[in-house]
Amino acid sequence: MVEGKLKHIEIRHLEALRAVVEEGTFTDAGIRLGYSQAAVSQQVAALEAALGESVFDRPGGPRPVVLTPAGRLALRHAQVVTDRIDQLRADIDALKAGMGGRLACGTFQSVSVELLPTIVGRILTETPDLQVRVDEADENEPLIASLIAGDLDVAFLAGPVQEPDIEVIPLGADPFVAVLANDEYSAELTSYDPMLLNGIGVIGENGGGAQLLIENGLRALGVSVQYVFRTNDNGAMQAMARNGLAPAIMPLLAVDAHDPNVRVLPLNPPIPPRQILIALPRPALRTAAATRFAQIAVEVGQSRLNAGGAIPV
Q1: Band of pLDDT at residue 210, cut at 50, 70 and 90
Q2: Does pTM top 0.85 for this prediction?
Q3: How high is the pLDDT of residue 1?
């Protein structure tokens, strides 16, 4: 049956069919493909055997070959398949050169707002054909799992992280700060004592890696953590603190430090900061674009966290 024979069709058979049609003769098709005329004839014959139909009417003599109805049908499919193969070759060449393809980046909210626009802007200036996709998560685990599975090419993580199947590069420390309404009380402060939270409560997140670090750090200082408002939206946390509901304890990277209606104060005593990391899969699984993205992330992240991340007081 024809259905069983179709599985024997190979890409080279379709390339030969298309070349003969576009070049006009088997000889010229062979020159284009780097085959002999006999080799082109063999490829076309193999295609006809798989189809169970002739694709060319061969009148003989100087007259050119003419496509049969089956040949015209086969040519339409051959054009689609060979165009996709040509695109695949071009995409692979671009991928090797780091000049195209797709890059999937795992991240979290504060990095997406504060670091990612500069990083993506720089890499797209260098590689304008690159398509960047961003996946956000509040915790490291899904990002690490997606990176190992190959669903992500690169990921930002909040450290510390120990995972043998990925490479982790530190960008810098992100301290935890207190965000308070800018009023007469906060105007007198140069730092914030976390013990004061025992009497008034705190604004925090519903969960996530950063919130776990905050809770553990506060408890280690003797603070009984009582929430008056919880949300995973950084802007909403800051808005509640701005309106005087309670202080918010947040990573500095998550704070809009240009908001004139809040005070952003270092904690005294402090709790251990989180580390901002960029993670890559094993070298054999990396693309050139992912490697370059990580290099830019290191430059931008270290500059922002180490030089531009001073706590305004």
Answers
A1: confident
A2: no
A3: 44
Locate CATH 3.40.190.290 in the chain. 177-266
Q: Does domain 2-97 have CATH number 1.10.60.30?
A: no
Contact 149, 209 (CB under 8 A): no
Question: Each residue of 274-307: pLDDT tens digit?
Answer: 999 999 998 888 888 899 999 999 999 988 887 5
Q: Place 309 in a pLDDT band, splitting at 50, 70 and 90.
A: very low
Which CATH number is 177-266's, of 3.40.50.720, 3.30.70.1150, 3.40.190.290, 3.90.380.10? 3.40.190.290
